Amino acid sequence: xxxxxxxxxxxxxxxxxxxxxxxxxxxxxxxxxxxxxxxxxxxxxxxxxxxxxxxxxxxxxxxxxxxxxxxxxxxxxxxxxxxxxxxxxxxxxxxxxxxxxxxxxxxxxxxxxxxxxxxxxxxxxxxxxxxxxxxxxxxxxxxxxxxxxxxxxxxxxxxxxxxxxxxxxxxxxxxxxxxxxxxxxxxxxxxxxxxxxxxxxxxxxxxxxxxxxxxxxxxxxxxxxxxxxxxxxxxxxxxxxxxxxxxxxxxxxx
Length: 254
Fold this sequence. Notes:
single chain; 7-stranded mixed beta sheet; alpha+beta
């Protein structure tokens, strides 16, 4: 029931104010760590209303905190909301070999266990991400149904609903709306998406394996160099000092 009220509240705000910001972003690093940021903000006067506060109550916030998320108030030019962040030390901890679609909506965020499908490899792992956000999908679907094409186009200009991800390397595949930084920065404008899900795949090196290979290679070269000096390099002959008769005679006088 609370979830329906939450969606209904967002739906009303969507049409009455056109002042809604829903941004999700991920920064995935080469060492497999990841930073997740979600920003949900609405018109400040409506944020402070009793109706909205009932939908984003303390129980939801506490649930997110118990799941390891940091919650901060967010302010931006007449908007107010929440900034929700979490640092993941290793995305392998939230990856599974099973195919999945993760719901990153605010209502389900605390309950999301796995985020990526992984195909382990020796030097590199391959990751597949498929994300959806239930609130945004319902809002956008209802907006398209209730408005003419022209009205919906005008409404989109006042809204900011997007997802972005920054990768250390160019992705293998992605259905992003915008690609920047040589393909490593991907952005999805959720208002214009034709696909059902955000989808992208990428590879990351297994740094422990790479480091092991480098150390092993260095050790092998050192061992090879030492064997070369011991077994292959010819030994130098020892040269004894020569003594003349005069020098031996002079030494005998002492």
